[in-house]
Amino acid sequence: MMCDLKAQAEALVLFANNIDGLLTYALRPSNVFGSGDKQFVPSLVNLAKSGWAKI
Fold first, then answer.
1. Is 6 an active-site residue?
2. What is the top-level taxon of the source organism (predicted)?
3. Which DSSP string do the residues of 11-47 spell out, in sequence order?
4. What does the pLDDT look like over 3-24, one tens digit per residue?
């Protein structure tokens, strides 16, 4: 799943923290979407269909 891949990538970034002076952190924005998204894009589509959004 996509969330597993994101977790693996985050773990790699955090593992690299402070190696040879490299400082890293993981930022988790709440509105990231992509293939397989079941929340963000569908809610935008429903909003557009409802007529409440001017998009």
1. yes
2. Eukaryota
3. HHHHHTTTBTTB-------TT---TT-SSHHHHHHHH
4. 788 889 999 999 999 999 999 9
Each domain of the chain, given as residue ranges in start order, spans 2-50
Can you tell me the distance from the alpha carbon of 41 to that of 50, in angstroms, rounded to the nearest whole number? Answer: 14
pTM as predicted:
0.48
Compute the distance between CA of residue 26 and CA of residue 49 in angstroms, rounded to an integer. Answer: 35
Residue 49: count of CB within 10 angstroms of its CB: 9
Catalytic residue among 6, 38, 49, 54: 6
β-pair partners for 19:
22
Residue-wise over 10-22: b if at least 16 C-beta within 10 A, else e? eeeeeeeeeeeee
